Amino acid sequence: MNPTKPGNTKPGNSRARGPLAGARRVVVKVGSALLVDPRSGRLNRAWLETLVEDLLRLRRRGQQLVLVSSGAIALGRRHLGLAAGALRLEESQAAAAVGQIRLAHAYKELLEAHEVTVAQVLLTLEDSEQRTRYLNARATLEALLALGAIPVINENDTVATAEIRYGDNDRLAARVAQMTSADCLVLLSDVDGLYTADPNRHGDARFIDQVAQITPEIEAMAGGSASNMGSGGMATKIAAARIAVGAGCHMCIAPGRHSHPLKRIESGARCTWFVPASTPVAARKQWIAGTLRPAGALHIDDGAMRALLAGKSLLPAGVTGALGRFESGDTVSVMDKDGREVARGIAGYSDAETARILGRQSGEIEALLGYRGREELIHRDDLVILRHE
Ligand code: GLU
Questions:
Q1: Topology of 290-385 in CATH?
Q2: Given this model, what pLDDT does residue 47 score?
Q3: Which of 309-313's residues contact partners 24+ apart within 8 Å by CB, and which partners?
Q4: Which is the closest atom of ligand 1 to the Cα of 231?
Q5: How far apart are CA 161 and CA 186, in angstroms?
């Protein structure tokens, strides 16, 4: 049993304690410029130790963590004798292969010293853009978090091509926050937040500490400024913020140069917060309710209807029929006895699987399908009630 496995205690009210301290699930993105010393090309280990201490503190409070770490290319290039300056695609792919193993090793060493299990997850753009792959990646991350591990994620740079890649970990981290329904995303980098203009060129540039809405003016402020190590500039951070707040997740752009960067955010150090209009669950439910054309429909009995109204999941036992062609992950309508659409949700099984398990007890699923799937046809987090009587 992992002694520091999170999830049993509930983080407190976010309003009283700030979005980072109050979050249930936090994604932290660490930029290359922080992790790797630009002169030596070596890992900034002393700094990383202070970040790990911060992460452990969050975990002890019961918060779940996902790390998105850059640094593979910056770390690997020295070992291949690659000169300073821009790399060709195949050179950066090679550098990433060499650097990623070192990066993962550093996290493993530092976190496992505290009996925290680290899991390396390398994602490609298709993993967030193609639905079945998105669902697979999401299920894996959920399983890792439920088992108490910390996923350490990077782009799979060795197979990413020039056209098909994120290229920057800001947007990757935002996709991960969305995928895991995180409520807080922290982008740690070598910039301290958003200014009305580039502060290096405009002495009168003002710092912005909170953004409630990403307007064209905010986007214009981002310009194209980039640090010389990683790939992300302010523009990719604003793009990340769009994804995060759209998913109901708070995001902050914070300076990471100092030791204990997360503690500093909680103590009110300067950073820019992007505030979402809703919560991750509400944003997800809104998206489900807004599906234009559900792929199919499930007819349910009165008992299941009562269960749904009481906030429970839809189990196969309460389903009397299935219509349409759908895969697991598609949105389907839920119809009551009178044929009225009463709810919508994301199907956990395809139409063919549903046909085999409907009306049966969840305990029979394995015998009926030949494999052990989930218990519910639609999980309550993936279900939105449309009418109440
Ligand atoms: N995936 C790249 C790396 O690990 C970094 C991308 C970025 O700089 O955001 O080196």
A1: 2.30.130
A2: 97
A3: 309/385, 309/388, 311/380, 312/380, 313/375, 313/376, 313/377, 313/378, 313/379, 313/380, 313/383
A4: 8
A5: 27
What does the DSSP assignment read for 10-44? ----HHHHHHHHH-SEEEEEE-HHHHB-TTT--B-
Kindly give the distance from the C-alpha atom of residue 244 to the centroid of ligand 1, in angstroms, as a whole number.
Answer: 19
Name the CATH superfamily for 14-278.
Answer: Acetylglutamate kinase-like (3.40.1160.10)
The residues spanned by each domain of the chain are: 14-278, 290-385
The Cα 181–Cα 279 span in angstroms is 9
pTM over 0.70: yes
Report the separation in Å between the CA atom of 74 and the middle of ligand 1, taken as the mean of its atom positions.
8
Q: Residue 122 and residue 155: Cα distance in Å, rounded?
A: 5
Distance CA 4, CA 247 (A): 28
Distance in Å, CA 386 to ligand 1 centroid: 42
Per-residue pLDDT tens over the stretch 259-282: 999 999 999 999 999 999 988 888
Q: Which residues line ligand 1 (CB under 6 A)?
A: 32, 70-74, 96, 154-155, 157, 168-169, 230-232
Residue of 30, 32, 77 best suited for mutating to test ligand 1, as the one with most atoms within 8 Å of CB: 32
Distance 56 CA to ligand 1 centre (A): 24
pLDDT band at 387 (very low <50, low <70, confident <90, very high): confident
Q: What is the pLDDT of residue 13?
A: 42
**14-278 against 290-385: fold identical:** no
